[in-house]
Amino acid sequence: MTQLRNITIFVALLVVISGSTVFFRIVEGWSWLDSYFFTVVTISTVGYGNLVPVTAAGKLATTFLIFGGLGVFALAIHEFAKTQLLKRQEHNEWLFARLGHHKESHEEQVANKDDQPHGSAQGGLPSSPQSSAAKD
């Protein structure tokens, strides 16, 4: 079901981009590249402003493109982000499961075995200067 939803959103985005590109090519008389550029800049809310429709039909179509195209574009971005977050969550769950299966040794875990805490297994050395003074 999710795959069908993603395909539908992708197709809708392609229809909006291609339909608007063709529309602006015909109505405004722009080149294919300018028509495509205007469409993408408009639905992505960048809006450089270097291309502006001059016909009434172009202006009306642009308002519909802003609302409809932006909605489809936002939905596509949302689905992409959701997919990426789900992948990351699955990876984190896999990672936590792998970390949870390590075997712990029965000996006490020490951050650095070369640097044992004072007073423990260092050949009977005193743990502090005060304790050596107290023994004398």
Profile the largest sheet.
none
Number of strands: 0
How many helices? Answer: 4
Span of the ends, CA to CA: 81 Å
Q: Which structural class do you get from the secondary structure elements? A: mainly alpha
Shape: elongated
Helix content: 55-70%
The oligomerization state is single chain
H and E order: HHHH
Proportion of strand residues: under 5%
Outline:
The chain is 65% helix and 0% strand.
Structure, described:
With 136 residues, the protein is mostly helical. 65% of the residues lie in helices and 0% in strands. It has helices at 2-27, 32-43, 56-99, 129-135. Helix 1 packs antiparallel against helix 3. The termini are far apart.
List keywords for this structure.
single chain, 136 residues, mainly alpha, 65% helix, elongated
Chain-wise SSE layout:
Elements: H1 2-27, H2 32-43, H3 56-99, H4 129-135
Helix pairs in contact: 1-2, 1-3
